[in-house]
Specification:
single chain, alpha/beta, Rossmann fold, five-stranded parallel β-sheet, 11 strands
Length: 564
Amino acid sequence: MLALGAPDDDATISALNELAAAELAQRHFDSAVDCFRRILKVRPAEPETLQSLGNALYDAGRFEEAIATYRQGVEAAPNSAGIYNNLGNALRAVGRLEEAIEAYRSAVGLRPDHVLLYYNLGQALSLLDREDEAAESYRCALAINSGDPDALIGLGNTLRKGKQPDVAEQHFQEALDHYLHALRVRPNDASALIGVGSALLGLFRHVEAVPYLERALAQRPEDNDTRIALGNALLGANRNAEALVQYREAEKHTTDTAALRLNQALALLTIGRWTEGWELLESRFSVPQAFPGVDLPRDVQFWRGEDIAGKTILLQGEQGLGDTIHLVRYAPLVAERGARVVLRVQPVLGKLIGGMRGVDTVLTGFDAAPEVDVVCPLMSLPLAFNTELATIPASVPYLAPPEPYRLLWRTLLGERRRPRIGVAWRGQQHLPHRSMPLAQLAPLLQRADYEFHGLQKEMSDADRAWLTANPLLIDHGEDLRDFADTAAVAEAMDLVISIDTSVAHLAGALARPLCIMLPFAADFRWLLDRTDSPWYPTARLFRQPCTGDWNSVILAVTAALPTA
């Protein structure tokens, strides 16, 4: 005979909890939700049940209901760091990041000894690009447990994001240290592997980045970002054909292909496949920040090599000064097609290029576009002329300093006592892999049988201090007002030795004897392995044998100089 009386609440709740656990084990989240709601009818404000219900709703993807439930839990148990943390997770899931941060901060205030709470706070702050605050939160987590891999990876990711160029190298190096620490704790962690590879890319250590990114991609073969990063690393390691494979595979899995096509263009041009390369290079117009923010004429046709006799064409300078100097060689060829040529370039190039053959007008302002029939950015001219290695317009010189500048610098330089060598060691963009400290050139500058002249308009404080202590170079920086001055000095040199920067292009365009010091993975226009340049017949190329090895380059250049 059944006993009469009210049901046992404890027994009912215990049975429902067991049933909910069984449903959760089978990922039947909605069924588990029903169990927890039945418990709350018996005990409406029990914090543990509210938290469990919120968790089940979260796992079911019912985030707004989970948020409402967690808020009930906070009211019932205002000192529960766990409920505040889970509330933050649900708010973050629906993009309510400011509220999520508030919830995480409450959790941290209640449990300042808990690594996970600081980690979650850092994640939310980073999603709002509040990187300094995020880094502080990750550092708090690491102060509790210095080997927590998630906090190490989170801090590394934060350090890699949004830093100014003057501190970028320092932050990439610190990020790398944190990722490597995480890998010592979790040796095959894909996020840490990706982090190491990405930090090495930021430090221009492409060769080292390759194996880490290969290991990461083996774990996450569907991760397009990792595949693209691997392609970039292979490109920087001079493994261009392999980079092409990665870029083309990545292109199959995204609709945003412009950046991938641009990277393919660079790989193709580097290995001499120019027909494909020049065509793909046009994708730069669809890549943010790849094309400068100049005002091209609206509704004007881009010229791609068709007949333009009797028309006015705007040739538009783009990208760096060296790119402009390199490609203005095509302007006379455009004029030979019967066009009136308007050339718009950077202001510091105006006086130098103003007298160039075949150019009707040189503009140096970027505020308003002139009235023209067609337009062609300079980097598109090789495509318009179907340029191949055998058809490069390599007749030099195609630039010359204006005569008044020649006369001025002939006077300023004075009588020639020894052969003169002009030197440039620092690019305007100050990219670490394409610049070097002046002190590194000491083996060259100590050649007493030559007279060395600086062709740098700007010099770092460290370089100036070294030069003051080692007066081995005549510095003309303050007198180089624009490139007409630089051209006049370079023309007066018996030899120019330069890194890959505008000075190298200028010396080549002036047909001066030229030694170009190249990084291991050089710009596409220098191709691979060559010691000569099809663009500049007077140039010799000296390449790093491995990443960062400028010493070998400098010793090779120094040894190549004859005794004067």
